[in-house]
Amino acid sequence: MNTDALIMHSFYQQMIEDTKPFLKGVKVSDKYIVDKNENDMSDSEHYIRYTSFYSVHLFGLCCQLERAVKLLSNFRDDNKNEIGRGYHLSYNIENYFIRLDSLYDRILQLVNAIFNFGFDDSKVKKDKVLKKISEVDGYSELMNSLYELNNVLKKYSDEKRNIIVHRYSYFDKELDMIEMFYDPIYSKIILQNTDNVENFKQIRKERLSFYLRKKKKEFNEINEECFEKLFLILNEIEKEYTLKKQELSF
User: DSSP characters for 179-213?
Assistant: First the structure.
């Protein structure tokens, strides 16, 4: 499953239609939550604009995770580039895991908005949101899907994210070797002091190509698994979104 499947979900399609009347005259830069107390708008309009804000930012993160796979290969190799192919790759791998770890938080923000739980952004935490959901009848499937997604993210992202953010860089022996092979200073020394330049270049190219194929496959599979769980979550929150709109229209 990819982002095309997510955007075609009936929840997103419904939200796109609901927000159309409010988009006239709105600039792309106006990406803030409208404070109902400062604007003359109905409860229904405020709810739609409030929930669409978090929907857009959740979908935007999904797109970033999908594009991150392509960015692994997006490197311009020339004599002026001082970054090095390996360091560019490690940066994008660490960036992927940090963004992946943000996915659950973005979903909780959207759930908080859809159910109108009233938590401030900074107070939206997993335990608080799940407790609130458990108090609403008919959403056991939503609870299950949120737990399942959390387990997926813990398996792939939790430990790596904590290491990257709080302790040290992403550790991978293969990646360390690629960084060394493509280090601008080290590789320049090697290329100047070896009789078999072409052999060195071929070896590092093969290592890089093999590693890229492996990482792209891994990240695509992670994205697909996460998006499948997210699709199920959208099924559930769509029901509450529809109900809330009807309640606020009267």
Answer: HHHH-HHHHHHHHHS-S-HHHHHHHHHHHHHHHHH
Written as six digits, the tokens of 158 are: 């939790």
DSSP character for 36? G
Residues 30-59 pLDDT 10s: 444 555 555 677 888 889 989 999 999 999
How would DSSP label each residue in 226-240? HHHHHHHHHHHHHHH
CA distance 192 to 228: 50
Residues 98 and 161: beta-carbon distance below 8 Å: yes
Q: How far apart are CA 115 and CA 212, in angstroms?
A: 41
- Look up tokens 């499953």; give the residue: 1
Tally Cβ neighbours within 10 Å of residue 98. 15
Alpha carbon 80 to chain centroid, angstroms: 32
**What separation in angstroms does the CA of 60 have from each of 30, 54, 57, 219?**
16, 10, 5, 17
Closest among 112, 79, 69, 48 to 245, alpha carbons compared: 48
Cα 245 from Cα 250, distance rounded (Å)? 9
Pairwise CA distance, residues 216 & 184, whole Å: 24
Radius of gyration of the chain measured on its C-alpha atoms: 23
Q: Tell me if 18 sits within 8 A of 52, measured CB to CB.
A: yes
Average confidence score pLDDT of the chain: 84
- Rounded distance between C-alpha atoms, residue 36 and residue 40, angstroms: 7
